[in-house]
Amino acid sequence: MSGLLIAAVRDLNPPAGGAEMSLATLLGGVGRDGPLAAAAPPYIPLEPSPDISEADLAQGWSVSALQSGARGTPTELTEDSQIARWALDLPVEDLWSGLAWRLSEKSGQPRRWLQRRHLRKANARFAKEIDAHISTILGSQRDTDSPVVGVTQLHWSAGAAERFTAHGVPYVVFVRDELQFRHPRIYHASLEGAAAVCCAGAGLGEQVAATFDVKAVRNVRLPVDFAGRFGSAAVVNGMRKAGLSARAEEGDLDVPRIAIVGVTPEKGSAFYQRLLPHLAAAWPEARMDVHGGGSYAEALGRFSNTTWHGHTPVEEVFSRADVHMLTVASTGSWGRVVNEAGLFGVPTVSVATGSQPEAVGAGGIVVPADAGLDDWVSALKQVHADRVSLGEEARAHCGIVDHRRSIAAFRSVLNEVA
Q1: Looking at residue 89, what DSSP letter applies?
Q2: Contacting residues for 63 by C-beta, under 8 A, at least 6 apart
Q3: Which of 54, 169, 252, 285 is 20 to 30 A from 38 (CA-CA)?
Q4: Whether the predicted pLDDT of 322 surpasses 80
Q5: What is the mean pLDDT of residues 279-290?
Q6: Is residue 50 helix, strand or coil?
Q7: Which of 332, 329, 364, 370 is nearest to 349 (CA)?
Q8: Dihedrals φ, ψ of 388, to 5°?
Q9: Chain centroid to CA 391: how far?
């Protein structure tokens, strides 16, 4: 089954982050003919798609996207996707959002009551702005029998859901991070009114279902186009070999190298402030390499066992790393970087919160959410000792987020909702 898909979001293209890149990939994918999840072949990262019989191909959806135009013109992200993009004259920030960040909480999160005020105003403004556009889009479908489905996510999803409901359009919502959990009063109606809530990973879906009275939760994992980003297996293996050879020439190959990519309040900034000095005492041979911009990542560079590298291409990070580490404070949204590490044969140590166990699989160790610092040190040591075998497991597991699998899963959700 196919029809018309209306995406109503604050950002899509140009993207504000990984969530927008993921949704743009999914929208572009379902806009082309392809299989449902049940008929999808076992896609292997970096390898071409197997032949699929015509009988197993579902017709592509027509896709319209309503978004703010405040971030500029679209990038190559949606090129050749045939997405009809409507850029609306709506700002993405205002006085209240600015104050929320400037007067942030001790945790580093934006001040909750100020952010709440911003989100209420922004969603009301978005709902008002998209109403006529939805009417126009639906009017173009009046003489057809094609189903219409809405999709939304993140900051402006409450306003989008309100208008989808008013126009009788069933819709799905993606939960990507802690936003809806921080502001349940704003987002509970949009989540509980959705035909399905989509999450990357069953664990995050369980967190959503435990907090909100949702109708259905569906697992649509993050879509990663490994070949589009990194090329072929030969290229990836070559980068890994070159990185380890460079370390050998530097006399660094026997030094345990643990990579952290991206540090925010939700991604463990306060935890790392406690772990890194403890690790320096418990395992002085280990070196921590912190990658990513921002003050939270930079602040970790003050520890004697840690080097802050700033923004670093993923292929440079994992061509040289022995172990990857990732933690989350509360919301177990899928760590894309876990599977990017796996592509390079680098295992991960993470936390058993939300979708992290599913992301890591057999390619590493997940520690309990209430684990102590010594437990983390033990896990890091064990994964480093077994890094070759666990790295192979991580490489085998990374295909779980192959974009072709995720697109097939999303296509199946739309088929179900329609």
Answers
A1: -
A2: 4, 5, 7, 27, 28, 30, 31, 81, 82, 83, 84
A3: 169
A4: yes
A5: 97
A6: coil
A7: 364
A8: -70, -55
A9: 22
